[in-house]
Amino acid sequence: MRAEIISVGTELLLGQIANTDAQFISRELAAIGIGTYYHTVVGDNWDRVVDAIAKADERCDVVIMTGGLGPTDDDLTKEALCHYLGLEMVRHQKSYDSLIKRFGSLNKPMSENNLKQVLFPECATVLDNDFGTAPGMLYEREDGKIFAALPGPPFELCPMFTNYALPILRAKTGKVLKSNVLRIYGIGESSAEMLVKDILREQTNPTVAPLLGNGDITFRITAMADNDEEAERLIAPVRRSLYERLGQYIYGEDDDTPEKVLVRELIAKGLTIATAESCSGGLIASRITDVSGSSAVFNEGFVTYANEAKMKHLGVKKETLDEFGAVSEQTAREMVTGLIAATGSDVAVAVTGIAGPTGGTPQKPVGLVYVGVAVRDDHGIRVNVTKNNFIGPRDKIKFNTATTAIINALKMINGKL
Amino acid sequence: MRAEIISVGTELLLGQIANTDAQFISRELAAIGIGTYYHTVVGDNWDRVVDAIAKADERCDVVIMTGGLGPTDDDLTKEALCHYLGLEMVRHQKSYDSLIKRFGSLNKPMSENNLKQVLFPECATVLDNDFGTAPGMLYEREDGKIFAALPGPPFELCPMFTNYALPILRAKTGKVLKSNVLRIYGIGESSAEMLVKDILREQTNPTVAPLLGNGDITFRITAMADNDEEAERLIAPVRRSLYERLGQYIYGEDDDTPEKVLVRELIAKGLTIATAESCSGGLIASRITDVSGSSAVFNEGFVTYANEAKMKHLGVKKETLDEFGAVSEQTAREMVTGLIAATGSDVAVAVTGIAGPTGGTPQKPVGLVYVGVAVRDDHGIRVNVTKNNFIGPRDKIKFNTATTAIINALKMINGKL
C-alpha cells in the first residue's frame, strides 16, 4: 500500500510552521508497513485542494489529509474531499452533541460556523477529536482505497491518528515494520558507506538506509514481516555484518545520543565526571546534564574562557600558556589533568579551541580544537588529547567539539582510546 | 511569481526528519514577495523525481529542489533536474579545486563518489557551499522560469540560499517585503494578543502576525512596498503602537535572542559576567557563549550540581544548605553574591532548581527554580532572586530557566528589575 499525505494550510506555505504532521504520520505508517510516497502541501484553495486529491488518488492507495477542518470559511478540506468522492454530508449526531456539551462547559458562545465541523458523510467513520472541536473522518471506497481528513494542530492530530485511524489501517495491512538504528561517529558519510556498500546494495528485506544526523551518521535497518519475532530474525544477521565492518565507530543504537550512552556507562561503572570548557562554553556540561539521572555522575563543570580561570581552577601553568598559547595540546593536557586533581573525579574532559567566527590565525584557524580526556584508575591517570579541525559556523563547531569530547570520554572509559 | 519547493529524500517520507528546509525557503521567498504554492516531497527515485519536476514546471515559475546532492548513488536530484532540462553536466573547476582542498585540509581520503558533486551544466550558476562538499545550482531557462537545486542539511542549505540564491531571485521580483519582528518574554501569548487585539485586526499593509516562539512570543510586522523606504514608512507607526502597549515585555527585535541582547548590552556598558548553574547544567553559559564576541564579557562559569561545589567555589554556607536546602531562595542568593566575590565580575547569574523528571517533592516540585542575579556597581551589590515554577520536560525546564536568567540579568543591568 502506497500512501500520500496532503497537508492543507497557508501557514505551511508561508513557512510559519514546519510540516510536523506529515512527519508524524509518515513515521506511524512506516511502522505498520505502509510506505509514504509523497507529501504534498497546498494552500486553502478549493481548486488546488481538489486537484491534489485527484493526483493522490491516481498514484496512491491511502490518502491522508491534514488541516483545514476548522470552523472558518478558509477551512475546506473535508468539503473538498467529500465533493471529490461524491459524498453528501449530514449532521453527525454524536459529534453534534459533544460539540454542544464542549461549548457549554467552556462557557463560550458557539458560532454558526462551528456547526460545519460536525457534518460528515453517513458512510464515513468519524474520528473523535479528544482535544479540539473538529472531528476527523476516514472513508474506504469500494475499490479499497482509503481517504482520511484529520485536523492540523499536532496535539489534536497525533492522538486522533494513533488512537482512531491507525488501528483501522493496521487491520488492513497485517504487517509489521521494525527498525534498528545504528549510530556512528568519527567517520565520514561516504567513507562509512564505502565500507558497507555491498550490504547496502544487496538488501531488500531488511533494507539498510544511511542518514546524516546531527554531526553523526545513522544506519537504519528496517524489516517488514508478519510479526515482531520474524522481523527481528531478519534484522539480526545484517546488524551483525554492520557491526563487523563499522563496530569501532558505532557508539549506540536507536534513540541513543552520545551523552545518554556516556551517562549510562558512567553509572554502570560507578564513575564520576567533571568538565572544563573553553570554546564549547558549557555545552558539554549542558548536554551531559540533559540526561535524566546525570546528577549521580556529574561532579562539577567549569567554563574557563579566560586564562586566569584556567590557571586558578585547573592549575594550568602560566609558562604553558605563554609558551604554547591557550589553544594548544599542552594546555589541553594540563587542563584535563588539573581538573582530575581539582575535583577528584574519575573522568575529566577539557577542551580548548577557537569557535569563531573571529579569533583565528593562519597557525590556529577557526575550528582548531584540542579535546582532552583523562581517566583515573588504580594504575594512575591516562590522558588522551586529540587535535581537531572542525568546519562550519560557531554553533556547529561548539556542537562537534562537545560530541567529540563526549565520544572520546566514552571510548576512554571503555578502553577503546 | 509562483514557487514550488520539491524536497527529495526518503528520510522525509519515513518521518525521520521534518521538512524544515521547505519552511525556511517559503519564509524567505515570502519576504521578497514570491508566493509558495506547493511543497512536494518525493523519495530518492528517478522517475518520481522527474515526474515531480515536470508537474512543478507546469504550475509554477520558480522550482526549488532540496536534498539529494550528496555523494552516494541515492543522491540523484541534480542529475534528474539536468536530465529534465536537457542540460549536460561537466566538471566545474572552481568547485573541484575547493573539494580537493577541503579533503586535503581534513586529512581524509576523498572517495570517487565525491566527484559527482562538482559536475554542473555550463549555463547554470553554481552556488557555493560554505559548510559542506555539495555546491548547489540555479538555472534560468529561456522562458524566465527558474530551477534550483540545493543541499538538504539545513546548516548547508540556509546560508547557501540566503547568500547566493536569494539575491538572484530578489533581483527578478522588483517588490520588497520587509518585516520587523518584536520579541517578547514574560507574558502569555493570549494575554499579549488581548493587549493588541485591535491593532491585529485593523492592519492589512503592514500585517501583524503573532507567533509562539521557543519560550518567547514574536509579533511580526510585514509591509509590501516598491522599495525599502516606503516599507519602513508603513511599518513605523504600527511598531510604535506595539511598543506603547507591550514595551515592558519587548526584549529585542528581528534576529535577537535574549543572549545576543545581553552580550550586546554587556559590551556596550563594559561589564563582565559570570554564571553558576545547578539545574540548568551549563546551558546559560553555553547560550551566552553561543554569541560571537562573548569572550570579551564572559568571565567564567561553574556548573555546581553538588553541594560541595557550591560551597567550595561560591562560598555557600553549609548551614544555609542544611537549613533551607540547595533549592531555596537563600542558596540562590548566596550563590550569586559568592559568585561576584569569587570572580570579580560585574554581573553574576546563579540558578538552583529541579529539572526533573525525578527529584521533586510536594514542597519542592519538579520545575521549581530560583533564579538569582547580582550586579555590582559603585553603590554596592544589588541582588534579585525570583521563584519560578516551570512546566514541561527536562529540556524545556532547562531552557526556560536559562531564558529567565538571561532576561533577568538584562533587566537588572538596564535598571528594570
Task: Give a concise summary.
The structure is a homodimer of 417-residue chains. The first copy, chain A, contains 15 helices and 17 strands.
Would you give an account of this structure?
The structure is a homodimer of 417-residue chains. The longest helix of chain A is centred in the middle third of the chain and has 20 residues, at 154-173. The model of chain A has no long low-confidence stretch (mean pLDDT 92). The first copy, chain A, has a six-stranded mixed β-sheet with strand order 2-1-3-8-7-6, sandwiched between helices. A five-stranded mixed β-sheet of chain A has the order 14-13-15-16-17, sandwiched between helices. A four-stranded antiparallel β-sheet of chain A has the order 10-11-9-12, covered by helices on one side. Chain A has helices spanning 10-13, 20-31, 46-59, 77-85, 93-106, 154-173, 189-195, 197-202, 228-246, 258-269, 283-289, 307-314, 318-324, 329-343, 394-413, and strands at residues 2-8, 35-42, 62-66, 90-91, 119-120, 125-127, 136-140, 146-150, 176-184, 207-212, 217-225, 250-253, 273-277, 298-303, 347-353, 368-377, 380-389. Chain A is built from 15 helices and 17 strands. Chain A has three domains: 2-173, Molybdenum Cofactor Biosythetic Enzyme, Chain A; 176-253, Alpha-Beta Plaits (2-Layer Sandwich), CATH 3.30.70; 258-413, Maf protein (Alpha-Beta Complex), CATH 3.90.950. Chain A has 417 residues and is an alpha/beta fold. In chain A, helix 2 runs parallel beside helix 6, helix 3 (46-59) packs across helix 4 (77-85) and helix 11 crosses helix 15. At the A-B interface, helix 2, strand 2, helix 7, strand 10 and helix 11 of A face helix 1, helix 2, strand 2, helix 11 and strand 14 of B.
